[in-house]
Amino acid sequence: MIIDKKNNKVISGNKTSAVAPPIDKPQEPQEKPLQVESNGPMDVLKAMKEILRSVTWEYGVPNSPKIFRTVQIDDGQYERIISPSGNKEETLGFPAAFVHFINWRYLVQQSRINEGRAELRIRFILNSLNVHEDGHDMGVYYVAERIHQTIQESISKYECLQERCQLEYVDPMESFDHGLQPCWMTYEIWFKQRNIWTTRNKIYKKFVCPPFTNHADQDPTIEGVNPDGHNNLDHPRTYDEATDYIPHQNET
C-alpha cells in the first residue's frame, strides 16, 4: 500500500485501510408516511369558494361579468368594516361573499362513523346605493337566486356536495350600513370525513378459511339448530375442488 506522506492519503493498495476515504453506502429510499386526505368540511368550503367565484350576473350569457370581487372564509370581516370605531379591515372589493359553517356536528351511530351534518352560511354583501329605486330594490334577491342556480348547476362537479346540499332559507337585507347591503343564505350540508384508521398501521395477513361444512356437522343436541330442516348441500370437500385448482403435471 502506498501512502502520500504530505496529506496522508492512500494512493494505491488496500482500499479498506483506516486512512482510505470512506465508501458511501447507497441510502435506502425512505417510505413517506401516508398523509390524511382533506376532510369533508374542508372539501365543501373549497367547493363553495370556487362556485361563488364563478357566479355571473346573467345566466347562460357568454362573458357575463362575475358578481363577486371578493370571496373569503367568513371570520367577521363585515363586523369590522362597519365597526363604529372605524374600518379596521384590509381593503376589500365589493360585491363580496363570505362563507363559513355553523352548527357543525357529527353522527354518533356506529354504522355511520365519520359522517356529519352542518349548516353552511353564505353572507354576500352588495354595494349599490340606489336600493330604493324600482328595478334595484330587489338586487339582493336576484343575487341570491343566481347563487342558488350556480350551486345547483355545480353540484355534479363536486363529490362533497352530492350527499346533500339543500337551501334552507334566505335572510334578506335588513340594514344599509356604510352603503353596504348584507344578506344571508343557509344550506344544509351532509358530509363524510375520511377515516385515518383505514390505513393507519396497516398489517397484511393471510387468512385461511376452513372447508365448507354441511348441516349434518351441527350438533343435533343443541336446541334450535337447523330449525328449517335443511339437507346437506353438495359442497366440494377439498380446497382444490372448492377453487377449481388443477395441479400441474410436474406438481403431481
Task: Supply database-style keywords.
two-stranded antiparallel ribbon; 5-stranded mixed sheet; 252 residues; alpha+beta
Count of DSSP strands? 7
Radius of gyration (CA) equals 34 Å
User: N- to C-terminal separation?
Assistant: 60 Å
Largest sheet: 5 strands, mixed
Q: Give helix and strand order, one letter per element, not per position.
A: EEHEHEEHEEH
Q: Which term fits the overall shape?
A: flat
How do the strands of the widest beta sheet line up side by side?
3-4-5-7-6
Q: Which residues form runs of ≥5 with pLDDT under 50?
A: none
Task: Briefly note the structural class of the backbone.
Answer: alpha+beta
Number of helices: 4
Task: Walk me through this protein's architecture.
Helix content is 16%, strand content 21%. The protein has 252 residues and is α+β, with helices and mostly antiparallel strands. Strand 4 and strand 5 form a beta hairpin. The longest helix is centred in the middle third of the chain and has 16 residues, at 139-154. The protein is flat.
What's the short version?
The chain has 252 residues and is an alpha+beta fold. It is built from 4 helices and 7 strands.
Strand and helix map with partners:
Blueprint: E1 2-3, E2 10-12, H1 40-53, E3 70-73, H2 77-81, E4 96-106, E5 115-126, H3 139-154, E6 164-171, E7 181-192, H4 239-243
Parallel strand pairs: 3-4
Antiparallel strand pairs: 1-2, 4-5, 5-7, 6-7
